[in-house]
Amino acid sequence: MIARLRAAILCLLLFFPFASAVQACESLPSWAQSACNRLDQIWTEGGNDLYLTGYSWHNRATYSREKIDSFNELAWGGGYGRSIYDEDGDWQGLYAMAFLDSHSKIEPIAGYGFLKIGQISDNFRLGAGYTIFLTARHDIMSYMPFPGILPLVSAGYKDAMLYATYIPGSSGAGNVLFVFGRWQF
């Protein structure tokens, strides 16, 4: 329920200028205002993030050798976002990226991420959570945007964070480990 709510609010905020997000939050039902206000807080108070993408591993157990050889696994790209560490020390962020997909076509993505953070030392932390997003691909509905939700794990040192997510699928579709990084400045 909460994940669906956050996805709906994120979609709403993506279509409204962030300057008017407070007014948009006030016009929502009371049960949705808290999530909307959190997204506004991330955008207005959060730090700047630079995202760099770079690798997508296709599960060798679900694809033929010929298909693996045809895929682009260097998913070069990047993006921008804003994020905060909330009152519980957990990471929450809004992001937009574009990268080369498995067929070397550009894939845009924008979304919200949440990670429950475990502080290992002053400078090192691990996280696990999820991301809710909108993306578009040339091979899925001819670039018609569609939503998704995926698991997200991370390992970070100081202002840098390495993320990974797994896109599930069936034999010959999906089953991709996607790795990207974030530097907060």
Automatic annotation (TrEMBL):
<dbReference type="GO" id="GO:0009245">
    <property type="term" value="P:lipid A biosynthetic process"/>
</dbReference>
<feature type="site" description="Role in lipopolysaccharide recognition">
    <location>
        <position position="67"/>
    </location>
</feature>
<protein>
    <recommendedName>
        <fullName>Lipid A acyltransferase PagP</fullName>
        <ecNumber>2.3.1.251</ecNumber>
    </recommendedName>
</protein>
<dbReference type="GO" id="GO:0016409">
    <property type="term" value="F:palmitoyltransferase activity"/>
</dbReference>
<keyword id="KW-0012">Acyltransferase</keyword>
<feature type="signal peptide">
    <location>
        <begin position="1"/>
        <end position="21"/>
    </location>
</feature>
<comment type="similarity">
    <text>Belongs to the lipid A palmitoyltransferase family.</text>
</comment>
<dbReference type="Pfam" id="PF07017">
    <property type="entry name" value="PagP"/>
</dbReference>
<feature type="active site">
    <location>
        <position position="101"/>
    </location>
</feature>
<keyword id="KW-0808">Transferase</keyword>
<keyword id="KW-0564">Palmitate</keyword>
<dbReference type="InterPro" id="IPR011250">
    <property type="entry name" value="OMP/PagP_B-barrel"/>
</dbReference>
<keyword id="KW-0449">Lipoprotein</keyword>
<dbReference type="InterPro" id="IPR009746">
    <property type="entry name" value="LipidA_acyl_PagP"/>
</dbReference>
<feature type="active site">
    <location>
        <position position="102"/>
    </location>
</feature>
<comment type="function">
    <text>Transfers a fatty acid residue from the sn-1 position of a phospholipid to the N-linked hydroxyfatty acid chain on the proximal unit of lipid A or its precursors.</text>
</comment>
<keyword id="KW-0732">Signal</keyword>
<feature type="active site">
    <location>
        <position position="58"/>
    </location>
</feature>
<keyword id="KW-0472">Membrane</keyword>
<dbReference type="GO" id="GO:0009279">
    <property type="term" value="C:cell outer membrane"/>
</dbReference>
<comment type="subunit">
    <text>Homodimer.</text>
</comment>
<keyword id="KW-0998">Cell outer membrane</keyword>
